Amino acid sequence: MEFILTISEVSKRAGVASSALRFYEEKGLIVSERAGSGHRRYHRSVLRRIAFIVFAQKIGLSLEEIAGELAKLPENRTPTKKDWSRLSSRWVRRVEERIAELERLKDSLTGCIGCGCLSLQRCTLANPGDRSGRKGPGPRFWL
Amino acid sequence: MEFILTISEVSKRAGVASSALRFYEEKGLIVSERAGSGHRRYHRSVLRRIAFIVFAQKIGLSLEEIAGELAKLPENRTPTKKDWSRLSSRWVRRVEERIAELERLKDSLTGCIGCGCLSLQRCTLANPGDRSGRKGPGPRFWL
DNA sequence: CTACAAGTTCAAGTGAACTTGAAGTCAACA
DNA sequence: TGTTGACTTCAAGTTCACTTGAACTTGTAG
């Protein structure tokens, strides 16, 4: 395999900052080799990998989850179209679930709130247990 | 108006931690009066307000946006059912947009990636300009 | 009167996903 | 020779939405 792309080339083509690329590498999402100078050199396949990372983020996956998904790809060979399809079909299900949740929220916006019943202890949609019993910081919304 | 609820009562009924309530107040999302002791006392209407905040978060709005929306409610009187409905109908549109975006992402997962064309410079779905030209930290995903 | 729970403020910590800045290396060009 | 420009590492900063902890005061029960 030839590792020929510099970090700035990958950055431009993928539309992702160099700092983000180093960060992804640190997190084990992508790999690089080093030129004699110590500079990073990337294989072309990294572009598709990054495309998938960006995509998965839009869908709402965390980098940790994405790392887990990418780890399922074969290590000893460049992934085929079929490998990528397998991944993407798993993600389609997640998107569908997310859409379904939004539909439910939408319905309760028009129905539940519109009719005036919106009170947290009665409306299961607004408070389905997950919010009350959550720990740690931040919202991590619609898990 | 009678401000009679203590912070722990509101916390229990709304399913939101006391610390979060103080935080919301600091951000101007809710209001309270003080008892002689210096303790917070809330009006009952705060419960509906919090319900809306929780809801809006699930939909994906930031607290800043929510503050902006809530500011549109009348100040000198307790909001009516109609006031809340007006807000919620605006949010329905946002949910619909978000759903539409997810549908697009889903389609490109099955189509674009499945067919093998996923390359960031060609596929407008994966890189519609917003990602390339972004500043500051974090993803703020699916704006 | 003494516990103890529940409230207060204010500063600092958390996690995710990066970015920014400092300080240094290396190759190429005038 | 010097000076850009692209690269390196490492530490620290940023945003959001809170939480946690320290130190202190108040209200209630026995």
Task: Give a concise summary.
The structure is a homodimer of 143-residue chains. With 143 residues, the first copy, chain A, is an all-alpha fold. In chain A, 51% of the residues lie in helices and 3% in strands.
Strand and helix map with partners:
The structure is a homodimer of 143-residue chains.
Chain A: H1 7-14, H2 18-26, E1 33-34, E2 40-41, H3 45-59, H4 63-70, H5 81-113
Antiparallel strand pairs in A: 1-2
Chain A binds a DNA duplex (30 and 30 nucleotides) through residues 6-8, 17-20, 22-23, 27, 37-40, 57, 62-64, 135-140.
Keywords for this structure?
homodimer; 143 residues; mainly alpha; Multidrug-efflux Transporter Regulator, Chain: A, Domain 2; 2 domains; two-stranded antiparallel ribbon; 2 strands; 51% helix; 3% strand; disordered C terminus; DNA-binding
Describe the structure in your own words:
The structure is a homodimer of 143-residue chains. Chain A is an all-alpha fold and 143 residues long. In chain A, 51% of the residues lie in helices and 3% in strands. The first copy, chain A, folds into 2 domains: 105 residues, Multidrug-efflux Transporter Regulator, Chain: A, Domain 2; 33 residues, no CATH class. Chain A is built from 5 helices and 2 strands. The first copy, chain A, has a two-stranded antiparallel sheet with strand order 1-2. In chain A, a hairpin with a 5-residue loop joins strand 1 and strand 2. The first copy, chain A, binds a DNA duplex (30 and 30 nucleotides) through helix 2.
